[in-house]
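This part of the workshop introduces the protein records we will be handling. An example says more than a description, so a record of this kind follows:
>
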Amino acid sequence: MIRILVATDAWHPQVNGVVQTLSEVARAAAPLGAELIFLSPDEFPTVPLPTYPDIRLALSHPRAIARRVASERADAIHIATEGPIGSLVRRHCLKKGLPFTTSFHTRFPEYLSARLPIPERWTWAWLRRFHNASAAVMAATPALEHELTQRGFRRVTIWSRGVDAALFRPRAGADLGLPRPVFLNVGRVAVEKNLEGFLSLELPGSKVVVGDGPARADLARQFPDAVFLGTKRGEALATVYAAADVFVFPSKTDTFGLVLLEALASGVPVAAFPVAGPRDVIGGSAVGALDRDLRAACLQALTLSRAACRAFARKMSWEASARTFLANAMVSARTSQPIGRLGIVCA
């Protein structure tokens, strides 16, 4: 079995797209003949991330990282995040001449500039330097691949995402006991998600937010008519999706948005701005309404076919995502062993 060491600063109990993607791909990779081993913050002391108290940064030392990497004797190394763990693993790999791949999950330039007076070009320059040392940079969508290439990132390749269509599905009778239509958002409750842009809309029915984060208390005070349900997982989350009429995605900075696929698999049409993430996921399909006027998009989404949404999402599986990830990761592999049913032989 192929063994891939994945270095990540985002890990359980965090609830975000990076953690979910890595967890799902690990599960889907096993039947394909590959094992993902995670080097994550739960192995080290941690401190809260400034302005994100629910996210903790690992405190490690280069020697501890070196010992951990050496002990695994993995066939390939993938660096999923640019935090302390990712940076130390990158440093070790460069020092020892070990090839590795990276993935681009988060638009830190926009996130940082929303909170701190840091010019976006500075952060982009740092990210470009970080990722250009890798054998391949994995991007979630063609639009992001194009943007990174235009910004000077090298060896960018696609790694799309999937959805658990057995969990996220239409459920007859699902109801939250709220006035309809129900406009739903699921995700991190933070300033960069632009939830204020959703909650300030004049819409009929109810607005529901699932998730937690540093902006929740302020938004709950500012918008007392909105319903904040906190973090939901598994069947509880899937039931909330199925009870919604429209999924509203006000973010303008996400690289993909797994929640889009979860909503669509639940038979819920999407309303969003015509920006890279939702535009790349939905495209010209009649499963979402993309409009610079988010209220108009929400009302238009009410008219779309729930059956079409479900059919669209079922084409996106985590097995397909895992296959792509493994093929990309093998760029840096040091083995001639084929990966199960993938039929890929590493150089």
About this structure: The mean pLDDT is 91. The longest helix spans residues 17-29. The chain is about 35% helix and 15% strand.
